[in-house]
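User: Can you model how alpha-D-galactopyranose sits in this protein?
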Amino acid sequence: MSGGSADGVIERSALEPTALRAALAAREPTAAAEGEIRVVRAPGRVNLIGEHTDYNLGLVLPAAIDLEVRMAIVPTGGDRRVKIELLDSGERDGFDLDAIPAAADRWIDYPAGVAWSMSEAGLAVRGFRAVLGSTLPMASGLSSSAAMELASAWALLDPPELEAHGIDAMGLAQLCQRAENVHVGVNSGLMDQFASSLGRAGSAMLLDCRSLASREVRLPLDDHALVVCDSGSPRRLGSSEYNARRAQCERAVAVIAREDPRVRSLRDVDLATLEGFADRLDAETRRRCEHVIRENDRVLAAVDHLEVGDVEAVAQLFAESHASLRDLYEVSSDELDALVEIATSIPGTAARMTGAGFGGCTVNLVPRAELDRFADAIVREYRARTGLEARVLVVAAADGAGLMG
Ligand code: GLA
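Assistant: Here's the modeled complex, given as structure tokens:
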């Protein structure tokens, strides 16, 4: 099929369930005749605040967004193969459920990883044929990999199988995280899979990564729009630096735990305790820890402000979070800093980098009355400052992954 773009995105209309069903029916006429085609969907996410806190068992506040991955699928009965065709490029790939291949830095690693982690958990996964389309730009920091994983999970399993094993949306998110950590080999936290699985329309989702308790936080979107700006800049050193940050935090915890074995993660450490270890932790490590500890507090404060619609106070927290990610955690980039500076020149706008950093996107709450001015300033000034094209995406907070029927 044609009409695709470099980042794997196709027209929204091509993702309508009827269009997806027709695309698969053209390839699998018998299944179509028998009415066996199902459509599954899984959204990307944008994190409002709580960055690099999830793997430190802290707090995060992501929202699932209305940019998503969808697949029309038909289970293949006895045939234990999975075959998926990408609608934008026509590329096909697949694997055998009884001989799941090792990850090889390809998109099929995600469905294969989920099949592996589900099988390992004792779930009966089934083969299927599918066509896959996406409105979510791939590899731009909006969790296209988590969306691919959750859509695969819904394709691989019969809902009764989930019920029989008592697996809920959080359980699915954890199975998908395991696929990413162990099979794909990226040591990420739970936030992305959690958001893609448990998102609620109109809300961000507060997750306590230690207790796994979560709750909805309504977003004040009557007067403000939720906007993602894609920096269009390559994610330099993304996964190696990500893993390095994580390792630094874990080493700090190990040092502190030698003295106080009750400390299991940075969630159990406050600023005063951190200060007490100034002689045993180097300055860079202390900066990393300080970011994480303060960022958890900012998440709770942001929830309070969002719940009363005080976007001005949220803007202050976004600014502090961004500065901390730039100066203490050192995961921002010149491009992300430029996007935030331009955004905050528009009065009443909250802006910060979102996701892992080193490129990717910013998250913004923009007064609706200022949207045009905002978009214009971002595109023009960002181009002038960096020579790059930014993309401005007004998004809605969406429901988590599932069957569309
Ligand atoms: C990536 C990871 C998440 C989280 C963020 C940073 O998106 O996948 O688990 O750690 O970075 O907050």
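A couple of observations from the model: The chain has a mean pLDDT of 94. The chain has two domains: 12-50+61-218+399-403, 224-395.
User: Helpful, thanks.
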